[in-house]
Amino acid sequence: MGRVRVQIMKLTFIGADHEVTGSCHCIESGGKYILVDYGMEQGVNVFENAKLPVDEACVDYVLLTHAHVDHSGLLPLLYARGFRGQVITTAASAELCEIMLRDCAHIQAMEAEWKNRKARRSADAQPVEPVYTMEDAEGLIRRIVPCHYNQMIELCEGVKVRFTDVGHLLGSASIEVWLTEGDVSRKLVFSGDIGNKQKPLLKDPSYTEEADYVIMESTYGDRLHSDHVVDYVGELAKVIQETFNKGGNVVIPSFAVGRTQEILYFIRKIKEDKMVTGHGNFPVYVDSPMAVRATSIFQDNELECFDEEAMELVNKGINPISFPGLKLSITSDESKAINFEDTPKVIISASGMCEAGRIRHHLKHNLWRPESTILFVGYQAAGTLGRVIVEGAHEVKLFGEPIQVRARICKLAGLSGHADKNGLIEWVTAFKEKPRKVFVVHGEDSVCASFVECLTAEYGMKAYAPYSGTVFNLASGKLEYEAIPVPAKKKDRPATGAFARLLAAGQRLLAIIRRSEGASNKDLAKFADQVTSLCDKWEV
Fold first, then answer.
1. Cα separation of 9 and 471, whole Å?
2. pLDDT band at 405 (very low <50, low <70, confident <90, very high)
3. How far is Cα 266 from Cα 279, in angstroms, rounded to an integer?
4. At 346, phi and psi to the nearest 5?
5. Which of 438, 443, 453, 513 would be 463's cystine partner, CB 3.0–4.6 Å?
6. d(CA 480, CA 289)
7. Per-residue pLDDT reduced to its tens digit, 218-231
8. How far apart, in whole angstroms, are the C-alpha atoms of residue 237 and residue 335?
9. CATH pick for 10-223+417-488 out of 3.10.520.10, 3.40.50.720, 3.60.15.10, 1.10.3720.10
């Protein structure tokens, strides 16, 4: 696909449209292509995602709202297909991406290895290659440019951006984007994932005053968190006490980044106030190398991101997320040893939706035990193993083996990194004047529809929930193309291997050629001769 010569402001919706994961939007302005997030889909894929409106090698910038993989997880694939632009994100998100994207690459490699080992039993099985490699992740990480909250950045001519703390995750942000072409100027605000108020550790979401167009999430756009103030510390202490009294373990599937650190914050308080009795200085295992590294990053960014309560502890010389009895499990041998220790314990392990990682081993060892408790502390996307367990499955399959669900299944009610319906409305009504249009994304199909209806009927806003592939002309304020929902097909793995990398290199070469227009004739002629020589060498 070639770079469009006519300068025009467009916004194309790619991912997390009537779905919760796989966030991606594409801005075209002044001949530049800018992605906002490039996330991985998790759980059930309901609708087919449109392709990017431009070759990956022609993408100039990525603006990343935060490090969660449903917003960042496909960035290494973008690099593998020729992207060599800049990824702009906050300093904390930049640090978190380093560990999360490497972890994603590691998981891709392990899954491919496992599938190939299994496929050897079949004579006609095709070898599986990872979606992207560790080299791709490392290459993408080198393209990340960190910035600070509230810093005005001139991205390129006619494009300015600013990141604002939105309280969802360490480093998470809403992003203001100012576009100017000739005498036309527009301001877009991408909400990112809006944080829940009164969360431990992190500040409450900050609001933005002005926008022409708003692109906002709606994860919990159809529900309210509990009206009463939830005593998370007390609820968690109760679960631990009751489970330990029965001789079981408390297994907590937890996102390695964000939720794990919140749980540690609660347990520090439980231990300090001696809220669990009869079990001494009970052990708490964080069994996730990524969670261990993320916890260190949280401590490094406390000044910019921690709220007043957490900073009070810091100023007293108290680490808000550490305590006696905390055990950090790094190696696989250390992880395996946890389940051969009889002492009742708390095990915090990733992934939070039970889709991959070490948590699946701990579920295998504890789901069948009536004395144990599986405590869910985060959102479970449709189709994930976590969602299946929460919804009451009597049996699940782990590592090819059926496991009876006899453990107590609990949720820590109200503990969410996402704002509820009221929180979303509070964020979008904080603009001094109503935006020209609010685009509702990042919510399940029915949730997007109901939240649009709420904004329209109750708050008089012009709201619309686009499907993937929809194109909006920002200058005229009109839809250029209104996509219809396309049910997802079973997806083939993205093309990988040597030939796929060659195609990506070709895309990158074409992008460089297009960007070379305007160079001196001498340089262009030399470049053309080099390309021709290379073609002559390989032409059959």
1. 10
2. very high
3. 17
4. -100, 130
5. 438
6. 46
7. 999 998 877 656 78
8. 24
9. 3.60.15.10
